[in-house]
C-alpha cells in the first residue's frame, strides 16, 4: 500500500502472530530446562530451572558424534551443491546445446517425484556398492538436487546477455565469465541457496536413518529420531517423562545452531529470495 | 523401570518401514530386481567345542533400557562358564536397525533379541536352528515353538512366554460377593461384571483396549486360547471362524450392557479409571504386572492375578500375548559361540535364573514374563518373588499354571503388523458399537486378503 | 568458438554424473519396479499395469488422495491469505522492528521437524496436553485433537502451517516489493480506497509469486509424509493417512512395485494440479 505509518491494529496483529510463531519454540526450549516430571504435570508454568535433562541426554545419546557427522556432511555436501548447481544452472540458462531441453525436462520431473520413491532403489544401490554405513552414502545422493538447479537457472537467466558478452569481449574464458561475472551478480541468490541448502541438509532425516545403521555415522537428526522413537516406545512406562526431557533437550540444542545462522544471515537470505523470485 | 515389553512403534512400523525390506535377501548383486532365487537357509550344526575350549568374540544386540542391564548381568554369568568367549553386548534400537543390517550384510551381529512377530518373515536371513534345539524341543512351550517354525524348521531360540491372565480388584470382588475362583468362563466374567455394576452403577468393570495395535494383539491372545490365530501355517486367513465369532460376540454383549471401559493401555485416561475403581477386570498379558507396581498409586496392593476364564467349559485358561526370541543371522561371524550363549540363557539353570531371579535391577526378580523352557517352570520353585503390589500374591505360580495350558499356534505372518490398519481399526469400531461382528469379519478379511495376502 | 561449444557440457558434467548415478538411475529403476511384483526377495515378476490397476481400484488409494485434498484445502488457501496479510504488513518500510518480525515468522521454518512433531504430540495430547489444559482453565471441555477423526487433520495442518507460513510470507513479500511505490501513489491520487488498491494493484502484481507458492505447496502437501508418520501414524481410523504416507505403507509391507506405481500416479496428479493452478493464477495480460 501507500507507505503510511502502521497503526496500533497492525502492530497488535503482528505481535500476536509473532507470539504464535515463537511460542512452540519457546515452550520446547523452556520445558527442556524444567525437571522432567514437571513438563507434563504443569505444562504452562515455569518454576525451578535445571540442566538435568541436558545431563541425562549427554550421558545417554551420542549427540556429539551426531553434531560432528552433521557438520562434516554439511560442509562437503553443501560445498558440492553450492558449486555444481550454479555451474550447471549457468549452462542451462545461457548456452544452447543439443540435449539441453531433454535434460532439463528430466530435472523438472525429479522435482515432482516424491523423494520416498527413490529411497528403496537408492538403498539397494548403496548396498550393491557396499556403501551402507559410509559418509559417501550420506553425502553423494542429493548433493545436486533438482530444486537447486532449477532455482539457479532461473536466477542466472535474469542476467542480461550483454553483461556476459561483455565479459567474452574482454577475453575472459567461459569459466572465467562464470566465476568473475555470473557469480558476483547472483550473490543474493547464492546466499538464499546457501541458507536453504544448509537447512535441508541439517534437517534431513529420512535418508540418513535408512542409509546408516551404526552409531559412528549417525547424524544429528538420526540421533533425534532414535530418541523420538524411545519416547513413543516408552510412553506406557514410567520412563516417559525422562525420555521426554531428553528429547526436548536434544531438540533445543539441535535447533540452536540453525536459528543462530538464520538470524545472522536472514537479511541475505531474504534479499536472495526477493532477488530470485522477482526475476523468476 | 518401564521394561516396555513391546516397542509399539518399532513393532508396528519397522525401521522407517525399510525394515520390511529385509526380505530382500543377499541377492543384491546387480540392481536389477530379483536376479537370484531365494537363498537356501543355512543350517547351524552343534559346536564341537567344550565350555573351557570355546574361544572367540561375539557381538550381541539387545534392546536398551533395564532389560539390557539384566542381560548384562546374565552374560557375566555366561563368561564364568565360558571364560574363553568375549561378549560384546550392545544396546541397539533393534526394530530400527536389525532388518536393515540383514539386508546390507555389513556389521551383522552374531545374535540378537527379536519380536516373535518379525521372525517368520525373515527366516531366510537367519540360521536354521532346528538341530540345535532338538534336545530341548519336547520341553519347550508348544506356542513358542510354533511361532518360530517356518516350513518345519526353527529359526529362533524361544525366549520369553507371556501368558494372558485375568487381573482383578480383590477388594471390589469381595464387596460384591463375587468369588474369583468361580470365574471359569467368559460368560461367568460378564455375569460378575453385571453384579458389580448393580452394586455400584459408576463402574464399567471390564477393560477394552483402545489402541488398534494392542487391541489386535489382545484379540490374538483370546484366539490363541482357543487354539487358533489370524493365519494358519500355510499363511491362509482364518478370521471367519466360530472362535473369532465367539470373541467378537462377547465383546459386543459387554459393550451393549455398558460393562466396559474403553481406554488406551496405561495412558493417563486408563490409569485414572483403574485407580478410581471404575475398572475392575483387566484380561491382559503378565506384563501388566508392572502397572500396580509402578503406575497405580491409589490401588496398588489391591490387584490380583488369576488365570483367564475359558471360552468353553474346560477350555484353555490362557493364551500368549507378545513375546520375543533370539536369532542368529546367517551372516554371523561366530554363530556357534552365539548359540552357546543363547543355549546358556534359555536352557541352563544359571542362565535363566540370572535373568528372572532376584538381581540388582529387579530385587524381587523379573516378573513381566516367564521362560518358555518347561524345566524352568516349576510352580514350587519360583524364579521371581511374591509381589507386594499384588498383596503378596505368588504371581509365579499363577502364571506358570496358566501358561501350561497355552495351545500351539502358527508362525506369525509377515503382514500381521500391516493388518492392524484393517482388523485393528475394525475391532475398535466393534468396541465403539459402530460395527457388528459379521461386519468386522467380512470387511477385515476382504481387505487383508486383497491388500496384503494377494499382493505377496 | 570451440570452447564455447564444449563448455556447457563441461559445466553440467559434475552435476550430470551425480544426478545420473543417484537421481536418474534410481528413477528408472523405480519406473521398472512399478510394472513388477517384487517383495524384495526372490524373483521379480513382470505384471504389466497390474499395480496401477490395483491402486486405481483401491478404496484406500482414493481415500489417501481424499485426505490429502482435505489437507490441501486446510493449508493452501489459509497460507495464501495469511501469507499475503503478513507480507503486506511487513512490506511497510515505516514499520518498526521489521527485522525482528521477519525472524519471528520464519523461525519455525528452520526447526527440526522430528523434534517439533513430538512437541505437537504432547501439546495436543487429549489428557495432559497444554491446549486442553488451557481449555479446561477457561471452563471448556477436552478436545481429542489427535484422537478424533474430525480434529486430526486440522491439528496436523496447523503443524504444517506453523512451519511453512513464514516461508510463504517471504515469497509473497518478494512479489510485493517488486511493485513500484509510484503505482500506489498514482492510485492514491486517483482517490482509490486502500481496499481497492489492494485488490486492483497488489493482488494482480503478486500473482506470479502466488502461483509459485501454490505449486511448491501443492507438491509439499501431496507428498506430506513425516508429519503424519511421526504425529499420528496415519490414524485415527486412517484419517491422516495422506497420499505420501499411503505410498510409504506399501514400502513397509514390502510391496515395492505398488509403492513405485503409487509414486508415479502421484507425480501425474501433482503435475496436473500444478498446471491448473499456474493457469488460474497467471496474470491476465500474459499470453504464453
UniProtKB/TrEMBL annotation, chain A:
It comes from the Bacteria. One of its GO terms (cellular component) is plasma membrane. This is Carbohydrate ABC transporter permease. It is found in: Cell membrane. InterPro entries: MetI-like, MetI-like_sf. The keyword Transmembrane applies. The chain crosses the membrane at residues 12-29, 67-90, 102-124, 247-265. It is a multi-pass membrane protein. Belongs to the binding-protein-dependent transport system permease family. Keywords: Cell membrane, Membrane, Transmembrane, Transmembrane helix, Transport. One of its GO terms (biological process) is transmembrane transport. Residues 67-265 form the ABC transmembrane type-1 domain. CDD domains: TM_PBP2.
From TrEMBL, chain B:
It comes from the Bacteria. One of its GO terms (cellular component) is cell envelope. InterPro entries: Bact_solute-bd_prot1 (IPR050490), SBP (IPR006059), TAT_signal (IPR006311), TAT_signal_bac_arc (IPR019546). Pfam families: SBP_bac_1. Keywords: Signal, Sugar transport, Transport. It is found in: Cell envelope. PANTHER family: ARABINOSE-BINDING PROTEIN-RELATED (PTHR43649), SN-GLYCEROL-3-PHOSPHATE-BINDING PERIPLASMIC PROTEIN UGPB (PTHR43649:SF31). NCBIfam families: TAT_signal_seq. Belongs to the bacterial solute-binding protein 1 family. This is Sugar transporter. It comes from Nonomuraea aridisoli. The lineage of its organism: Bacteria, Bacillati, Actinomycetota, Actinomycetes, Streptosporangiales.
From TrEMBL, chain C:
It is found in: Cell membrane. The keyword Transmembrane helix applies. The keyword S-adenosyl-L-methionine does not apply. It comes from the Bacteria. One of its GO terms (cellular component) is plasma membrane. Keywords: Cell membrane, Membrane, Transmembrane, Transmembrane helix, Transport. Its main location: membrane. InterPro entries: ABC_transporter_permease (IPR051393), MetI-like (IPR000515), MetI-like_sf (IPR035906). It is a multi-pass membrane protein. One of its GO terms (biological process) is transmembrane transport. The chain crosses the membrane at residues 9-28, 69-91, 103-123, 160-184, 205-226, 263-281. It holds the Pfam family BPD_transp_1. Belongs to the binding-protein-dependent transport system permease family. PANTHER family: ABC TRANSPORTER PERMEASE PROTEIN, INNER MEMBRANE ABC TRANSPORTER PERMEASE PROTEIN YCJO. This is Sugar ABC transporter permease. It comes from Nonomuraea aridisoli.
